[in-house]
Amino acid sequence: MTSTFRPDFGLTAQDYGRHRAGFPPQTVTHLYRHGISFPGKDVLDLGTGTGTLARLFARAGARVTGLDPAAPLLEQARELDREAGVETDYRVGTAESTGLPGGSYDVVTAGQCWHWFDAPRATAEIRRLLRPGGRVVVAHFDWLPLPGNVVEATEELILSFNPAWTLGGGTGLYPRWLTDLATAGFTGIETFSFDLAVPYSPEAWRGRIRASAGVGASLPPDEVERFDEALGRVLGDRFPGEVIQVPHRTWAVVATRGEEDRPARPAR
Fold this sequence. Notes:
CATH superfamily: Vaccinia Virus protein VP39
Distance between the termini: 45 Å
Keywords: Methyltransferase, Transferase
Order of helices and strands: HHEHEHEEHEHHEHHE
Domain Methyltransferase type: 44-138
Largest sheet: 7 strands, mixed
Strand order of the largest sheet: 3-2-1-4-5-7-6
Number of strands: 7
GO biological process, one term: methylation
Family: Belongs to the methyltransferase superfamily.
Protein name: Methyltransferase
């Protein structure tokens, strides 16, 4: 199901690139454990944003293409790549119609973005793009609202400014994506998850939230400014200190393009 809430992350590009924590490096280790290696492989990262997954895979030795509809985010991705000393081929495009040649990739990934896709069209496009036996990875790196913590307080404030926002209260688990992949004929479906705390300064947390779908990507600039000031007051009153430990969960589903997609062998 495609969300009807449609933020524009291009509006948040600077905060997005500066303050949104990327997928942790342990993600690559867990993918190796599930049979997905990167050295010398062709990888396509859909909805790449500022390239947080793409950079991990490039560091791991893959040839990476990153695709996103928001050109300003890709500019941030290129700058972050330069700072990291890696190179990714970033292109503007959508997951449902990439314009890329079929059968060109060993791995196709989607990090923190599947909920924005038209799943039947995106899975069909991924099958077209993957080589036989290729792997798909749908991953998330989510903050966790727990009773009384800074995430719960932040989500309550977002809703008070933006009642149309529907992404709060999450658990970091996405069982529906397994159904999306199974329905599209992917096989060998497996999942993994791990939790960790991400340290933020109060200023960085405010920047992270300005870059979120419910704030900078969907509210008018004056409302973003009012929200940011209100969040600053909440942090000062309820979560004082120089560092805020924000619990996060990394979760992913991996699956394989079925062998039935292999071209038939010519008769002898």
